[in-house]
Amino acid sequence: MSNLKALKFYATQPHTCSYLPEQQATTLFLDPDIIISKPLYSQLTDLGFRRSGQHLYRPHCEACCACTPVRVKVDEFKLKRRFQRILKVNHAITLEIHPPHYCDEYYDLYARYIEARHADGDMFPPSKEQFNSFLVGDWSFCKFMECRLNDKLVAVAVMDELAKGLSAIYTFFEPDLTKHSLGTYCILQQIRLAKSLGLPYVYLGYWIKECQKMSYKTEFRPLEIYLDHQWLTVL
């Protein structure tokens, strides 16, 4: 394990929060000159950190603690009826796991997704440079879960395989296939994959109670949150 006291971290200047506009946000980043190894990354993830592209970070806000790291307990996960229906609707989807890489097919789907679902967000407008810097890198722990329906690419789930679980980094999917609930479907498949690998958790990033866009994360139970320097089962 790494000696965390020897690591350097840098805090950003306060800026408007992307999720709670009335709040000022500050982000703590690991020194970008430090190589992100799987052991170090795993250790920091268990302390509430998250990866975005080449950076490991976590919220470090002075007056707000709304961003809560959450993870699903894989072995105790409950496949409720809604989830069963989603798996049934998507029974014809085929899955393949690939190393992270760029291809036009991936980017075209990514661009359609951003333009349809996140035109009001920081990632709009999409670009190939953005796609590569955010999702593509030379990391042995990163995988692309490719989902195809009748040979057509319909979703890609980007995930990192860590010491204790899979970290769900980002998912983009065909925005017109609303009845397929592809975002939820990809999380269900990551939970299945984690179980097959003997990994106890799937990390879902940060959850904010007041943010409607993040409410879906509480559907995956039992759910643990990182609070006061420890993981607690809350749902």
Summarize the structure in words:
Its EC number is 2.3.2.29. It is found in: Cytoplasm. InterPro entries: Acyl_CoA_acyltransferase, Asp_Glu_LeuTrfase, N-end_Aminoacyl_Trfase, N-end_Aminoacyl_Trfase_C, N-end_Aminoacyl_Trfase_N. Residues 105-226 form the N-end rule aminoacyl transferase C-terminal domain. One of its GO terms (cellular component) is cytoplasm. The protein has 235 residues and is α+β, with helices and mostly antiparallel strands. It has 2 domains: 4-69, no CATH class; 74-233, Gcn5-related N-acetyltransferase (GNAT) (Aminopeptidase), CATH 3.40.630.30. It has 5 helices and 14 strands. It has helices at residues 38-45, 81-89, 104-117, 128-135, 182-196, and strands at residues 9-11, 15-16, 24-25, 27-30, 50-52, 55-59, 68-73, 94-98, 142-149, 152-161, 165-173, 201-207, 223-227, 230-233. An 8-stranded mixed β-sheet has the order 8-9-10-11-12-7-13-14. A 4-stranded antiparallel β-sheet has the order 1-4-6-5, covered by helices on one side. A hairpin with a 2-residue loop joins strand 5 and strand 6. The radius of gyration is 17 Å and the shape is globular. The two termini are 30 Å apart. The mean pLDDT is 93.
